[in-house]
Amino acid sequence: KILVGDGYQISFYEDNSGNLNESNGIKIIFENEHYAVVNKPAGMVTHPSYGHLDDSLLTNLSENTLHPVMRLDRETSGLLIVAKDGYSHNMLTNSDIKKSYKALCYGKFEPENGTMDFPIARRPNSVMIRDCTPDGKPSVTHYKTIAYYEKADISLVEFKLETGRCHQIRTHSCHVGHPLLGDGLYGPLSEDNPRESLKAQATIYDPKMGRVSLHAYKIEYLDPFDGEIHVYEAEIPSDMQTVIEAIN
Prior knowledge:
By secondary structure, this protein is of the alpha+beta class. The protein has 5 helices and 12 strands.
């Protein structure tokens, strides 16, 4: 019985369990009532932001509020997990999600397989740029050379993240002298990390790539709802494949 002066609270439950939209190059790899694994195309921001309120990944997928469990930079293509509600987001965030990437890099890694263990910190007086520096946060990237194209002196490399720092792969690769093709922040033609020895090479291949050549091709995780290990892969996108065919 409600009396005059009593306080009460009404809660609304938003049901986001319906299917998400597959549009503007977005591919839905897996979907259930809790979350979806999607393949984001290059050139699309993950979150709505100034200048991208209507064309982000989240707004393309649904008019409802979504919760990305991970994010990818605008130029980076590939797989990420999007939760449909806050509870699912929290459950998935606490899962051990293993992420693997493929990238085209200048030069040949020596040794061909190994680990880059260099702390990363934001560059002083810069909002975006990161550096490998002793006083940075621990950052570990495992790499494996998939192919080396000798004529072009370019490598196709697989990267597996042990930590998840901003720009980690790009920063580590730049630090060891093998920046990614098309990288406007860390590449040989960038204003922030120019590399004279690679400028002639980058002048040829950066325009062919047209964006940073980084693709999140594989994720593996324990699904907290069904208790099963899920593994999903996405093929290298057509722009990277075109460059590989041209230099092979």
